[in-house]
Amino acid sequence: MKKLILVFGLIIAIFIIACEDQINKVQTESTASGYLVFGSFHGHCLPCKNTMYKVSRTELTFDEMEHFPGIEYQFSKDGNKENTDFNNSIQLLDLLPEAIMNAEKQVYGCPDCADQGGYYLEFMVNGEVKRVILDTSDTEDQSEEMVSFKNALSTIIQIIGE
């Protein structure tokens, strides 16, 4: 009888753990973005060539422009990137930190104020489109998560931009 109670208790414990994992997965999926528009930009150069990328769970596309319009930017697909570029960039969807997803403001630092450029990010959280621009320099208003993500972002942009 004790063995039966122990087995029954174990089954209930496994069921509770499985339910908690499923709840956590649903919560994570509701905040995780289904796409990310990203890229680096420089506005004080002539002529400028700024490339933005849009990665989803299925493809990587790009948009090239001469002048980056800032926070009001709207992605316009110019073409598709190769599978290897897609495989490199899709990880950014999973690396996007909560510090950026829950950003309280749209601009961190002073992007391109000293001709250093900036990083543009657009993504969706809980059905809402969010746009964030990060200074390429590490500034006091950027968390460690943001700085780490910028490093990963810079590496990916260099790899897929070649």
Notes on the structure:
The protein is an alpha+beta fold. The protein contains 5 helices and 7 strands. The chain has 2 domains: 1-31; 33-161, Mago nashi protein (2-Layer Sandwich). The protein is 40% helix and 25% strand. A 7-stranded mixed beta sheet has the order 4-3-2-1-6-7-5, with helices on one face. A hairpin with a 3-residue loop joins β2 and β3. α2 runs antiparallel to α5. The longest helix is centred in the N-terminal third of the chain and has 30 residues, at 2-31. It starts with a helix and ends with a helix.
State the distance separating the first and last CA atoms.
Answer: 68 Å
Q: CATH class of the largest domain, anyone?
A: Alpha Beta
How many strand segments?
7
CATH topology of the largest domain: Mago nashi protein
Radius of gyration: 20 Å
Number of helices: 5
The string of secondary-structure elements, in order, is HEEEEHHHEEEH
Shape: globular
Q: What can be said about the biggest beta sheet?
A: 7 strands, mixed
What attributes does this structure have?
162 residues, Mago nashi protein, 7-stranded mixed β-sheet, 7 strands
